[in-house]
């Protein structure tokens, strides 16, 4: 089954062609980093305009690179939640038009479910059930993936996501955007024990997370150093921050995987590209005999290939969108709204 997929939830416009939920025939991405770097973060209005300018060309390019004619497409999949509402609307509007013009079914895909499906691309043997840690710029979740379209949220962040913590810390430290990649690079030569940083816990909710205090701690370090005329050791601070985030995510994800007893733990999302988190997760899970599945680096960030792969399983489950399909800024991956 050939699926044309569209992703536009934040600052990357993407289009892809996938086959049977596991094979990527083409994957095209138009990044907006150069635009948003000027502002130190994503500007929603500029993101939406850039999506409008790029989406048609990317869809055509994805079909061309895959060697697929328009009439050979079996369905059109699109991210419809969550994300920047204007940005998501661009993708949804284009996908609805494309499905109508091609006379093909429209398949709505939850963005987080798409991130989980990125693992199916690299690991043909991976099948539900399994535990999954999804960490990105806007989400930090621990999921019980019971089936391809059957999810349960075990834990989530109560405030900032891990990716937000990295981006905001990078901004105050003046080390560039996107923050996660810059901090990861700096951390490679740093001492992770140099700066004591907090690891928050939510009483009574062992799998929930909080990164607001960690972000504030880094901001206070930077402000206090600036006021006192001292300089911070940026590699050491970056390494300390990476370890604090990793400790928070990995401990909860591993505990959840042990509790579920599936023997399988996957990780996905933009923050899943962080080298400290990847090493730590694999090492910690190994202690409990749990096999880890790490999404390939090229599919950790937002892309349309993951949407096409999840779209295949949503299609098999009978999920269909209509011309009334809307976009949503927020939605849990186990929400009843995911069940069309």
In short:
With 340 residues, this protein is an alpha/beta fold.
What does this structure look like?
The protein is an alpha/beta fold and 340 residues long. It has 2 domains: 2-116 and 301-338, Nucleotidyltransferase, domain 5, CATH 3.30.420; 125-299, Nucleotidyltransferase, domain 5, CATH 3.30.420.40. Helix content is 44%, strand content 19%. The chain has 10 helices and 10 strands. The chain has helices at 33-37, 44-66, 85-102, 111-122, 162-173, 179-187, 212-228, 234-260, 275-287, 305-316; strands spanning 2-7, 12-19, 23-31, 75-81, 106-110, 130-135, 140-147, 150-156, 264-268, 291-294. Helix 5 runs parallel beside helix 7. The radius of gyration is 20 Å and the shape is globular.
Q: What portion of residues belong to β-strands?
A: 15-25%
Order of helices and strands: EEEHHEHEHEEEHHHHEHEH
Q: Quick one: how many beta strands? A: 10
Total number of helical segments?
10
How many distinct domains? 2
Provide the residue-averaged pLDDT.
Answer: 95
CATH superfamily descriptor of the largest domain: ATPase, nucleotide binding domain
Q: Roughly how many Å apart are the termini?
A: 20 Å
Per the CATH scheme, the topology name of the largest domain is Nucleotidyltransferase, domain 5
Binned, the helix content reads 40-55%
As a whole number of angstroms, the C-alpha radius of gyration is 20 Å
Please tell me the CATH architecture of the largest domain by its name. Answer: 2-Layer Sandwich
